[in-house]
Amino acid sequence: MITRRRLLGGAAGAWLVVRPGPVRGQEGVFLRAEEAPRQLFPDAQDVSERTIAATAALQGRIRDFLGRPPTLWESSYRIFTVKQGEAVVGFVVVVEEIGKHRPITYAVAVTPDARVHDLSVLAYREAYGGEVRERRFLKQYRGKGLPDSLLPYQDIRNISGATLSVQATGRAARKAIAVLKALGDLS
What angle is formed at CA 104 by the lines to CA 101 and CA 107, rounded to 5 degrees? Predict the structure, then answer.
């Protein structure tokens, strides 16, 4: 007869032998850039895309709007202009910012009045901190603008264990607005 202790001990031993391999963490590609405008502006009727090279002059203007250089310079920016009829309802800018070790790719939706409409994580490459992808976290960026610092514990609720990813999300939102202002799309 097998006792409960022997059964549990054997099950624990079997788990150590056949346990699953290492977990890759929370990294992955979650949305393609060309899908982001329709997700972030679901009522959009027309979306056009352009790619702008990040010249030294453009980088200087972006730095001026941010008040400091970003943690990562893209070689170019993918910008989607979103229209409803003839009216421009917003822009979606694809930007990258460094998390703890690796870049996080964001699609930031910006309204014509230079405020964050919404944002989405396109690619997350860290082993932990992926909670920044959750809607309940991202919705607190709505209505924020370039004057907002978007720092944890100030403008934004932090996520325990993901402080660097939270900071990267704020930097990405501000960078997207600065890119559009530097290009003259926003006043």
Answer: 165
